[in-house]
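Thread amino acids onto this structure.
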């Protein structure tokens, strides 16, 4: 049983030409592949894998590819960068590219901030998905509950 989605790259063009690409998708695939772009396989219909890279969808027959462990971030996701000391500027942006860096064995992400593409690439630990909510722990201080008639307990302040 194959589980989807799967992530990976097509680093080389197969020797057999374009027969592995669905005829309607040749123009899209020829712009994206071969490359270090991390492609998402979403399903298999028995003949073609249905793939996605951002807004582009295409169909490919089974071919040699390098499968990569997913990091729960995809092209199109909105993220917030996480600072590293004073080294990074914090901002909210959109993931516009995923690239596999072989020498690091990691996925690097290209981000867009407003209408500007950021020149450097980010790793997963340098950003947080906006859908990841932080939890606030239960408070330890007992606060008095106010009453509508003004008879509630007051906190005394020392001058």
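Threaded sequence (159 positions):
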């Amino acid at each position: 049983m194959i589980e989807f989605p799967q992530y990976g790259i097509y680093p080389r063009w197969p020797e057999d030409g374009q027969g592995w690409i669905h005829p309607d998708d040749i123009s899209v695939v020829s712009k994206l592949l071969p490359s270090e772009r991390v492609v998402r396989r979403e399903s298999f219909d028995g003949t073609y894998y249905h793939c996605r890279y951002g807004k582009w969808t295409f169909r490919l027959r089974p071919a040699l590819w390098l499968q990569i462990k997913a990091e729960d971030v995809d092209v199109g996701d909105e993220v917030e960068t996480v600072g590293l000391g004073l080294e990074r500027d914090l901002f909210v942006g959109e993931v516009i590219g995923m690239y596999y860096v072989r020498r690091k064995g990691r996925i690097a992400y290209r981000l867009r901030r407003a209408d500007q593409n950021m020149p450097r690439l980010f790793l997963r630990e340098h950003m947080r998905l906006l859908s990841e909510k932080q939890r606030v722990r239960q408070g330890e201080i007992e606060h008095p509950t106010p009453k509508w008639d003004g008879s509630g307990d007051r906190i005394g302040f020392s001058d």
